[in-house]
Specification:
heterodimer, A: alpha/beta, six-stranded mixed β-sheet, 10 helices, 49% helix, 19% strand, B: mainly alpha, 73% helix, globular
Chain lengths: 240, 114
């Protein structure tokens, strides 16, 4: 009986550890700033696909707002910057953060750079790759958070029945489908979700997420921030 | 309750506990509308109209629209040359989200003085 209980406990501990890996990311400055709002700047593109930066931009408001932050309207921000003559995202990223944050009244600014956004064609499989670098700075321009995420998707061909020729044809069809409508957006959403929600880099909750107050109460009552406290607080904040 | 069932129930709860995704807001087709607006030549007006309709419905239902969505409707109006409606939606964003006030305040002021 005792052994069984121990077994259950171990299994549970393993499971919990599986979804709440101990946080080693240093959020101490982030916790001091407690940003309520995030200004998402137009995305810098180092890939050759001209659609990449605006595609990525459309995926960011939701993932951040659902984390409890006020997210400045990305298309309004982009439009106003263009009215100011700022069309080039790389040029915007060069501006002092302080200038941008005070222009919009933002607590924090998110910079995203696309390092890779490709769909590599091979006859029987097409592999889609996204590689993003994310930085959140406070309104003075000091970095609060930074991470990079590269994800790869290659469609699985499950049609294993039938002749060798049938398999070759179905593989070629899968490659064609992936080439015509690459899985950029699902991969992009997955990358966002992982860095903001599930990886050890997952950001603290924003003020509109239930559990926000408990999160910061736990941080403050701990006094010194240990990874243990971060983990507990993240659990509370994510548990709704 | 027998033991295996208890074990699997506990495991199930533990698993669903971490799989849950929060849902604070309705997003409608916001992402798709923006995507079409940026990339699908000839569908810009439709994307803008679709977004405006969605946000207006949310607003009228009494639900809080997601951050920024009211302002985006305002910007679609602004780009279409309808400054009055743009101001109306910027004001709604201002009233709904305190964090938007510095930005919306300046926008409204500039538009009203023109």
């Amino acid at each position: 009986m005792r052994t069984l209980n121990l077994l259950i406990l171990s299994a549970l501990a393993l499971l919990l550890a599986g979804c709440v890996t101990p946080s080693t990311y240093d959020f101490s400055q982030y916790h001091e700033e407690k940003p309520r709002s995030i200004l998402v700047l137009p995305v810098v593109n180092n890939s050759v696909d001209v659609l990449a930066p605006t595609s990525v931009l459309t995926t960011l408001p939701r993932v951040l707002a659902e984390k409890g932050y006020y997210v400045f309207p990305v298309n309004t921000v982009k439009t106003l910057l263009e009215y100011e003559g700022l069309y080039e995202p790389s040029e915007i990223h060069q501006l002092p953060t302080k200038e941008l944050s005070s222009l919009f009244g933002a607590d924090a600014v998110l910079y995203l750079t696309i390092h890779e956004w490709t769909s590599k064609y091979a006859v029987f499989a097409t592999t889609t790759v996204v590689d993003f670098e994310y930085t959140i700075a406070n309104k003075q321009g000091e970095q609060l958070w930074n991470t990079r995420k590269k994800l790869t998707y290659s469609p699985q061909n499950n049609n294993n029945s039938g002749s060798a020729m049938a398999m070759l044809i179905s593989a070629a069809v899968t490659a064609a489908v992936e080439r015509a409508a690459p899985n950029y957006l699902p991969l992009t959403r997955q990358a966002n979700y992982e860095v903001f929600y599930t990886d050890y880099t997952r950001i603290p909750p924003g003020p509109y997420l239930p559990g926000y107050d408990e999160y910061y109460t736990a941080i403050e009552s701990a006094g010194t921030e240990t990874s243990q406290n971060n983990t507990e607080a993240n659990l509370t904040a994510g548990d709704q | 309750m027998n033991k295996p069932l208890l074990v699997s129930s506990v495991l199930l709860i533990a698993l669903t506990g971490c799989a849950t995704r929060s849902g604070l807001y309705s997003w409608g087709e916001y992402e798709q509308d923006l995507f079409n607006y940026y990339h699908e030549a000839g569908t810009q007006e439709e994307a803008a109209a679709n977004h405006i309709e969605f946000v207006s419905n949310i607003e009228q239902s009494g639900e809080t629209p997601a951050p920024g969505l009211l302002a985006e409707a305002g910007t679609f109006y602004l780009l279409a040359g309808d400054t009055g409606s743009a101001i109306k939606f910027y004001q709604l964003e201002f009233d709904t989200w305190p964090e938007s006030r510095p930005m919306m305040g300046i926008l409204i002021q500039n538009l009203e003085s023109n």
